[in-house]
Structures are given as C-alpha cells and as structure tokens.
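Anyone able to model this chain together with adenosine-5'-triphosphate?
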Amino acid sequence: MSLPSQSVALLQAARDLVKSLPADAVLLLTETSIDWDEVGRMLAGCKLFVAAENPALTKSLRENPDWTVIDLDPEPLPTQERMNAALLKAVTEDLLQPGSHIVAIYNGIATLEDAPEPVDSLSVIHLGEHLERMTAQDLRVLGDAAPIDVLRAVVDLATEIGREGREGQPIGTILVVGDTRKVLSLSHFQNFNPFRGYSRAERDVRKRDVREQIKEIAKLDGALLIGRDGIAEAACLHLGGRGDGVNIRKGFGSRHMAAAAISKQTSSVAFAVSQSSGSVRVFQGGEEVLHIEPLARPHVWQPFRLENQEQAPAEPDDSGDEVS
Ligand SMILES: Nc1ncnc2c1ncn2[C@@H]1O[C@H](COP(=O)(O)OP(=O)(O)OP(=O)(O)O)[C@@H](O)[C@H]1O
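re: yes, here you go
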C-alpha cells in the first residue's frame, strides 16, 4: 500500500513547516488505514502524535518509540472537537507543553469512510491560544444543565472576570445558570436589576459585546442569573438557599458557600469567581464539579482538584431569605 499523492503532498508540507516555522510536533488525526511505514519515512525527524478512535488502527503504532498514540473516545464528534480533545489530552498528560506549535493533518472535508485520501487538510495550531477554546469536552460533566454554547460563553465570561478584574481591581462574583424561577424565588435583589428594560438580544451572553457589558455589571455586589437559553435575567442578587449538605473546601467563605447552596437547592449550575484568587469553581448539586485556574493564557481544565480534599463543614444559610 502506498500513500495517495495528496497525502504525500500534505505530509511533505507538514515536515517542511516543522522545520521552517519551527513547530514542535505533527499531529495526525485519522480513522483510515494508511501506509505507516511511508508516513514514518516522510516524517523522519519530526515528533509525531497519532490520534484515533480505532484501537485496531493504533495498536501497532505503539511499538514505534518515536510516535505517541493518543486514544480518542469513540464518540461521533466533529473533527475540530476531536482535534481539541487530542491536543488537550496530550497537554494534560505532559506529552506537549502549552505554548507548543503543532502542525495538524486530518480529514476535515471528506467524511466518507472510503474516501480516496486519508487526509485532506492541514492546520498550524499555536497551543497557547488554542487551549482556551477546549472546553466542550470538559463541560460534558455538567450534562444537559444548559446547551454547550451557553456554558462555553459563561465559562469565557467567568474566566475573563477572574483574570482581568475591572479597572485594575480583582473582582469576584457568582454566575448562576438555569432554573431561573426557582433561583429567584430563593433570593432577593440587593439593588435594582440592571438588566431590566433591555431586549433579549441585548442580554444574550453568547455575544461578545454583551459579555463585555456584563463584566461591568459584575463589579456590583451580588450574583448574576442567566437563563438556560443564555439570556441574562438578573444581577445584584443575594442568593438564598440553605447551606446544609453542600461541600466546599476549607478556606472558602460565603461566596462559594452561596454558589454551592443554590446549586444544591435548584437545578442551576453556579460559577463562583473568587475575588482573592481569580479561580472559577463550578458547582452543581451542591458539589464542586469543575475548577479552572486563572492562568494567563492558556488554562488547562481540571475535572477535579488533585490537592487536599479536606472539606469544610456545612454552614447554615446565612441569609435567611424569603422569596422576594
Ligand atoms: N448569598 C450570597 N449571594 C450573592 N453573593 C454573596 C452571597 N454571600 C456572599 N456573597 C458575596 O461574597 C462576598 C464575600 O465573599 P467571601 O470572601 O466571604 O467569600 P469567598 O467564598 O472566600 O470568596 P472570595 O474567594 O471571592 O473571597 C460578599 O461581599 C458578596 O459579594
């Protein structure tokens, strides 16, 4: 079996790019059988990562010491997401450093299984910029709390608030997503609702300019409430909700407790942005399910913290709020 001409040309281009940019590695994403000996000859001297779902395809590749095989979960994901998953896995397993430059070759256009060419596309990926967008996979732990595009937008908003603060000052806040009616019934306004009077389009957090406006509002004391559909409904909310049965780590105060508590008592997901550290902790069902560090770019997602898992004792609700 020899390689078709388009694949040969792409591999040559990848090898040349690795030398001339320079780039750190080549990532080959394929689900089609391919002449690996030929690939090896063409990419001699390049660090090669091969990502595939099919274990039969990658089994023999593991014997080659110069190649790193990344197993992908067998899910019907778009190519972009599979590439993201492969790169994220390589970074979290310390196979690649954030900031690396990668030449990726993949099948981005032809989707037929019997496509004449195993690969048809080439991209140059600068991992520093790219990692921030690799959130979809990790957000799956939140199940169907909200559509993925809404969750991504809220993550972007929360991490930007944590990283940037406002006017040089760190700010903390809570972004509550979903179950708006129940959240409102358990909370009260500390101030007038700044979203009142604005159209849905002007409150849609999936839009960058709306997120920029919301960052201003996040300076105000209290939590923000966003619907499952991504429309911001309220700000300046003092969240009620009882704190018993929730788990937050030692050292956290009333903000994180309030976020955990509201996620326990409603089906919302609460994103607590810490004023002191900028980190974002995501609570669901009263438990912390995700933690994002406020690194300057890039950040790497951690589903669970690998540190001291000691938990703070549950505190009673400090608000005693009635329905407002
Ligand atoms: N129930 C609540 N609803 C909304 N915001 C709250 C609530 N309780 C506390 N906060 C916010 O949290 C702030 C106090 O944060 P505190 O330092 O006690 O918490 P923390 O969990 O350690 O958070 P941080 O890491 O941001 O300091 C309050 O000024 C208020 O803005």
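Residues 148-164 form the longest helix (17 residues).
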